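Practice problem: predict the structure.
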Amino acid sequence: MARKIFGTDGIRGSANSDPMTVEIALRVGMAAGRIFTRGAHRHSVVIGKDTRLSGYMLEPALAAGFIAMGMDVIFAGPMPTPAVAMLTRSLRADLGVMISASHNPFHDNGIKLFGSDGYKLSDDTEEQIESMIEADMQPDLAGSKDIGRAKRLDDSEGRYIEFVKNTFPKGLRLDGIKIVVDCANGAAYKVAPAALWELGADVVTYGVEPDGFNINQYCGSTDTRTMCRMVGEHGADIGIALDGDADRVLVADETGKLLDGDQLMATVAEAWHTAGRLQGGGIVATVMSNLGLEHYIHGLGLTMERTQVGDRYVVEHMRANGFNVGGEQSGHIVLSDYTTTGDGLIAALEVLSAMVQSDRKLSEVGRRFEPLPQILENVRFTGTPPLDNATVIKAVKSAEDRLGNTGRILIRKSGTEPLIRVMAEGEDAGLVQGVVSEIVRAIEQATG
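Answer:
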């Protein structure tokens, strides 16, 4: 069936507009509750959220749907997405739900669903939920004595902080390390600074005063300018920028220079390979990762396998093929020795571990390769994506011919926003910029 509600990372849209309405949240809770109430045990679901104003609206709507189907609801409060995945497993819940639109501005929100194993639901399961949303679920409602209950998990923050700290090598500390951490006014605004401080670091915080509206606003991994500047102002050893739900991270070295997810993957992959920990003979990245990363990984005698964009597809490929390091250029880093999804804080700790163990600066440890020139531009559209337009097809073909074997082009529709993403990379920066501009103009003409 054609997916109308679920995208590449759950459900996402403008709050209080279809599909992010109270009615649909209620129906999602009912549909998912219907599917995941299997067996005679008491069924439960963990619900977490980020700091968006609309979380107050969607959280009770989802809870009502689950409770109506006989599931107990455990409220975790504002917590990172990976914390919800961890708590779902730890509490032996049947389902986990994160209410977040990740890196999007406050007026958007989303719903991400995790199975009892802490992994995001498969496309097939999401399609099953979607098919039930408009169905009559009245016959499946719990009886009056069987409706679910709700409670708040008071120690959710402490559980996650201890989990994160336990991923850091035993006997290693962050004493003497100054860290600027930007929590994007999002879900990690309490837990990230606390975990870093408890490991011994001198912590300088930014983006830790959420008001329901300022999540990802001029802060976090989508706007790292202030974090990078603060590294220099405070003489910090590293800057860490999380996104709104803290499942992705970007890092700045001691000079304030940014390291993206490709550099972080290279750093972790080399460290784990040297330690004999790397599994699968390489890493998993997406089609967006820089060719420079691929060349670097191959230079280590390892492989790099690519998937479509979306950390869930990276995770699926890792699970199917025995890899334990994967991720995206945007900063989703998946380390399956510890987690079932991207975890920005744990990824940052792995980079810090490499720094401390080598007793070297991040500029020396974290910049493993020189990226090939890569340009990414987004074109907003309304209605049907114009990728089949003859003018656009001609422009793409022309660009591919101009690049030849020296680079590559990737054109795709965003799975979370009405955007066409145009990416090109190659050895000649001027040529790369030229072909991207040519395709963008064609798309803009096609959209009118």
